[in-house]
Specification:
Helices cover 30% and strands 16% of the residues. The chain has seven helices and nine strands. It has a seven-stranded mixed β-sheet with strand order 1-3-2-4-7-5-6, sandwiched between helices. The chain has a two-stranded antiparallel sheet with strand order 8-9. A hairpin with a 4-residue loop joins strand 8 and strand 9. The longest helix is centred in the middle third of the chain and has 30 residues. It is globular. The relative contact order is 0.18.
């Protein structure tokens, strides 16, 4: 175990990763940041609450303690962009989604600082991912990895208009078996909208760890925050959340059943 993340164990071959759920910033980094950065506006809020049913289903869960503003765990450590030709945030972001600066003047992280953060925060999380997936593969043969995210329904920097509610990404079909994707597409998510491999096709984690030929099946869900929050605030709306959790649970049950086949 490592102080930079939290891993909860289960008893089936499924793991939920929540790489943007962390809300801490070490003091030495926070001291270089703007007040806006310290508000953590771009957090994938309340992932742990939305998926709190997973434990009873025997699903492993992994989440970081530190914010994506410290380092983005869903990015390639070599800095390779996720979406060529589109606006992408960096491994260590310097601007928020609204393009406001995250660092005080002349305080952006140096390349050495970025390397230090990779070592201290990125590597432990990914080692936990690697080790847990290997353990599950050995025990259960078939493994499912869900990379769980959420985002504001309107972020002009990344997409036009309003985002669909459920945004599934399978790296254009390469990160999981087609039969699993087909099963998800047959779920009735109404009254919510859904799309496969739209604006969000799956980040680094989905692309790096999805290996269907080796029976490791990865899928990303980017959930629109208006389904469970009072946008644009960070307020959790209990009534909204209970409604969307019913559909989330159907989705997760589908993944869990696939892992047991």
């Amino acid at each position: 175990m490592n102080s930079t993340y939290s891993l909860s164990t289960g008893n089936i071959g499924m793991l939920i990763s929540m790489p943007h759920n962390g809300q801490q910033i070490p003091k030495d980094i926070a001291d270089t940041m703007t007040p806006n950065a310290r508000s953590l506006a771009d957090t994938d809020w309340y992932m742990d609450k939305l998926y709190d049913f997973a434990s009873a289903m025997g699903i492993y869960t992994l989440s970081p303690r530190y914010s994506r503003y410290v380092i983005d765990l869903n990015r390639n450590p070599n800095g390779e962009v996720l979406y060529a030709g589109a606006d992408n945030t960096e491994l260590c972001p310097t601007t928020a989604f609204d393009l406001s600066p995250l660092y005080l003047k002349n305080q952006q992280p140096t390349q050495q600082e970025v390397s230090t953060r990779v070592e201290h925060y990125w590597q432990p999380y990914h080692q936990a991912l690697i080790d847990t997936l290997a353990k599950l593969k050995q025990q259960y043969d078939r493994v499912v990895l869900l990379d769980a995210h959420s985002i504001l329904s309107r972020v002009p920097r990344f997409f036009e208009g309003k985002l669909p509610d459920f945004n599934f990404g399978t790296a254009d079909g390469s990160s999981c078996d087609k039969s699993l994707a087909d099963s998800i597409q047959h779920i009735d998510f109404s009254p919510y909208t859904s799309v496969f491999n739209g604006r969000f096709k799956g980040g680094y984690i989905t692309r790096a760890y999805g290996d269907p030929e080796n029976n490791i099946h990865a899928i990303q869900l980017e959930l629109s925050q208006h389904t469970y929050m009072d946008e644009p605030s960070d307020h959790y709306n209990e009534k909204k959340a209970e409604q969307v959790k019913a559909q989330l649970k159907k989705f997760v049950e589908c993944l869990a059943e696939f892992s047991k086949q």
